[in-house]
Amino acid sequence: MIRAVLVMNTQGKPRLAKFYEFRPVEKQQEIIRNVFAVLCSRPEHVSNFVDAESIFGQDARLVYKHFATLYFVLIFDGSENELAMLDLIQVFVETLDKCFRNVCELDVVFNYSKMHTILDEIIFGGQVLETSSTEVMKAVEEISKLEAASSAINLVSKSVSSWRSR
Amino acid sequence: MAGSSSSSIMDNLFQRTLDDLIKSMRLQLLTESSFITKSIEDIRREIKSTDPQTKSTALQKLTYLSAIHGVDMSWAAFHVVEVMSSSLFSHKRIGYHAASVSFHDQTPVLLLITNQLRKDLSSTNHFHASLALHCLSTIATLDLARDLTPDLFNLLSSSRVFIRNRAIAVVLRVFDKYPDAVRVCFKRLVENLESSDPQVVTAVVGVFCELSCKDPRSYLPLAPEFYRILVDSKNNWVLIKVLKIFARLAPLEPRLGKRIVEPICEHIRRSGAKSLVFECVRTVITSLSDHESAVKLAVSKIRELLVDQDPNLRYLGLHALSVAAPKHLWAVLENKDAVVKSLDDEDSNIKIESLRLLMAMVSESNVVEISRVLLNYALKSDPEFCNEILGSILTTCGRNVYEIIVDFDWYVSLLGEMATIPHCQKGEEIENQLTDIGMRVKDARLQLVRVARDLLIDPALLGNVYLHRILCASAWVAGEYVELASNPLELIDALVQPRANLLPPSFRAVYINSVLKVLSFCLDCYINQDEGTASSYCSNFAGRHSEMSDVKKDTETPELAATCESSTYEQDEDFNPRHSTAESSDDLSVENGIDRVVTRFSKRNFTHESVVSLLNRIESIFGSLTANQDVEVLERARNILAFVQLIKADIIDNSGQNVDKKYTQVSTVIKSIRDAFSMELGPVSVSAQGRVAVPDGLVLKENLDDLKAICGDTEPPSSSSFYAGGPHFGTTLDASSSNPLKNAESGPSNESTSLLEHRKRHGLYYLASDKSETIPDDYPPANDPKSNSNEADELAKLTEQSLLLRKKTNQMKSRPVVVKLDDGDVAPIPYKRPEPRDSSLSGAIKEALLGSETHQSLSLDKSSTKRKGKKKQGTNIPSEMKENLGDAEKLDPENLNSSSKSKERRRRGKEKIVEGEESDQRGKKKSSHRHGRHKTHQRANSPLNVVSQTPVIPDFLL
């Protein structure tokens, strides 16, 4: 299964961190730092796999991909195929690209919750659920609609209720 | 009321949203940490608001800060629960997200969310249900899993695929936390394998892939379903997962392998997806390695990967090769060119994989060449990889008590070479191997002492902290086997050299102890030679070590013979007036027959002057150490000093007269000291301590917790307390080191002059320039500068010659005896895979698949109402359920046995019929089909769990 998904920029600042098994926040930050230390030491145009046993415990492997100023990192175990994980990063980034039209780091920074929505549609509890970016986009759009509708209702109801209580 | 509501409006109006938070953080008006502290203050206030909007926004910000900036949010757990229970989707989402990020098994409020989750799971809005499932997939605990299993059971057959595949994925976590859920959900899970919806199949296969990881045997009965997917599915993701499952199942059931090998090969040939092809290759080489043709096909694919442009594929190719190496070394040898070439890759992953493969190829016949090439490579690579190389050479060569080493002289020199590589950080391993070889391999000791001497005498090595352990081992070796040393005085020089004070005290102590050993040996020799027993000693010695000294003889004889003669004359004139010079030369001529012994002996021919000056020097050097801070050093230095003082006067007095009776007293002292060191040390078995009987009255298992209280009171002994003991110590302290400043001033200058002297005397400046003198010709030094330049060619040559596993035609020496203890003292025998623990989960699954005959046959045959009843009972009275589980587990083996026996009996007569029945049922409608399959599962499993009787799996596959 997939154990964690990390997105960080080339300065080592985390932009998204999702762990599929609970880890205390200090441990999470430590992992992010260690992963970054490994990634930034690797030159361009080398393989995308890193042995992550020292960082993440037994049987952990790490696949990363470098896009512009961002690293996309997946940490997983022996039940996943390395090349498939690389494809999965591609699916994720493609989806982001569709969603934000030419995604850049700023989109990732300012759309924290949407990033999670997208990720949750692709990976569920550490398992790959959907690999088609069109399907993911459909679901994400529906969720956005639902959210917008609920907050619109919310605004109205609240202003009415607060007016009444006065 | 009005006040609170208006404040909440104010809060709401002026509250920063998450976007605001991120924006202002990016403005960097404050430092990040102070900004976060301030934001947390705001959040703490806002989160208490009664307005759900304010509350949820605050929680959202907090979750963000926690995930990205590592802020603790465990304090907000209750607010999370509140926000989760909001009826608005946007709030609920924030709440659930916060819960899945911050809750864990010990979160107390988890008890409060069961009902909320249940409500959302059964919500008509499938996004609400999805949120709850998502949350459950990461935070489900035993209680949650138990209580929500019924709801999950309903969702497993939901008509909405969106929900159904999420429910399937959650099952994994639920089974893990609450194995009893298997009884309820397993059948529905299996049914989903036959779903027509590809997404559902993906999810189920994913779950089985994870489950089979822990206990593959339980899932053998499902092999037919997986086989169908393997053949029919077009989805690469599913195929990869199915292959993973088969890789675990195939080793358990040989006939399964025969069935799946063809479809897998078909995928290898047909598929264009690299990921799928690689997975097929991996499955073949890990689990189907008996199928010759498949392995060949896989290896040919690996070769394609190895020469690919993409470093990822090259890396995976090497990785696959190293998986194949233990069983199919030919595959590695076939691709050796690519492997050796990869050693030069810029990618460190690839380098390390290729190093591993090279080490896998190492055998008795090529270990020398491979090690030499690798060592050359280590010299010019970066520190990290250099140590990687050294480490793998050390482990490979040291495996199973130096199994592959034939020529220990070579190996010992190799260890010496390793130590002189600038990046070497493998001090501990080299230390262990040096001492270990010394104790185990008698024939290697001569070379060991030479190597130790070379290492000890070089002052440059003392500056490298990583080498201290090696030097410590060398010092021990030099002291322990000093009788093999060609020049003991030189060893003393090396051991007392000024830079030795760079060593940590514990290693320094070893140095000093070795000085005592060497010194006592020198004096012993001196006295024996004076007493005229030198020659007999000498011939004794020759007998013991003649074959070893052979090597040295040729190179050193002429020069040494000269020194020998001169020194003997000198000595005779000084001390042996009784013997005429003619006699002495007669002696020599007599001994010419064993000329090399003279050579050997000559080097340790001690003149009276040299001995006296040695004693003086030792006295002055160790005099300063009596003020040392470390007890070990202090004590040993004092021992030596006392010893020197005891004998010095005698030796000086006896310079000329009283030849016959001189030294009688001294020689007894020296002899007793020598005797103390004469016992040979050997390797100690790891189980040795177990053989020592525990003395009466010693309670080993007593709990020592009480000691903590006592130890807490007493202060840990500081180093100064050792000096407080006697006034004597105090005075020495005052005398020589009360003024540390002065010492520091005088220290370096003293040291540097004496260092210069040391270097001048031994012709050393930084690293020994000409090693050819000390290293015999038949073992060329590993880091020979000549071969440095073109190690690519060297590597290429290596691939041509040595990796063919050819037999070495002319073995120079037979392998010396290596002391091994009977009971397998060192046991790094090939590592064992940890046995998968037989968890309660697998027990439950076995039961669900096989033991169901006794437990579930009723509920299966009857309608699902019965099952529901059972389920309700389970949820309402968990304790009873647990009891049931306990009983079931207790009974399990019994049940299995009895059922399998009876089954076995029945099966004999029934086999054909059942087979026919099965093929019929394939075509029938679903419900009856399910029933039929269940029967066949039982049939399939019973023999597997008894002794391995005729396996039945392939029957399904016919």
From TrEMBL, chain A:
SUPFAM superfamilies: SNARE-like (SSF64356). It holds the Pfam family Clat_adaptor_s. It comes from the Eukaryota. Its main location: membrane. The keyword Signal does not apply. GO terms for biological process: Golgi to vacuole transport; intracellular protein transport. Keywords: Cytoplasmic vesicle, Golgi apparatus, Membrane, Protein transport, Transport. Residues 1-146 form the AP complex mu/sigma subunit domain. Belongs to the adaptor complexes small subunit family. This is AP complex subunit sigma. It is a peripheral membrane protein. It is found in: Cytoplasmic vesicle membrane; Golgi apparatus. GO terms for cellular component: AP-3 adaptor complex; cytoplasmic vesicle membrane; Golgi apparatus.
TrEMBL record, chain B:
The keyword Chaperone does not apply. One of its GO terms (cellular component) is endosome membrane. InterPro entries: AP3_complex_dsu (IPR017105), ARM-like (IPR011989), ARM-type_fold (IPR016024), Clathrin/coatomer_adapt-like_N (IPR002553). Residues 880-893, 911-922 have a biased composition (Basic and acidic residues). It holds the Pfam family Adaptin_N. It is found in: Endomembrane system; Golgi apparatus. Residues 733-755, 939-951 have a biased composition (Polar residues). Residues 923-938 have a biased composition (Basic residues). One of its GO terms (biological process) is Golgi to vacuole transport. Keywords: Golgi apparatus, Membrane, Protein transport, Repeat, Transport. Residues 566-587, 733-792, 850-958 are annotated as: Disordered. Adaptor protein complex 3 (AP-3) is a heterotetramer. Belongs to the adaptor complexes large subunit family. Part of the AP-3 complex, an adaptor-related complex which seems to be clathrin-associated. The complex is associated with the Golgi region as well as more peripheral structures. It facilitates the budding of vesicles from the Golgi membrane and may be directly involved in trafficking to the vacuole. It also function in maintaining the identity of lytic vacuoles and in regulating the transition between storage and lytic vacuoles. This is AP-3 complex subunit delta.
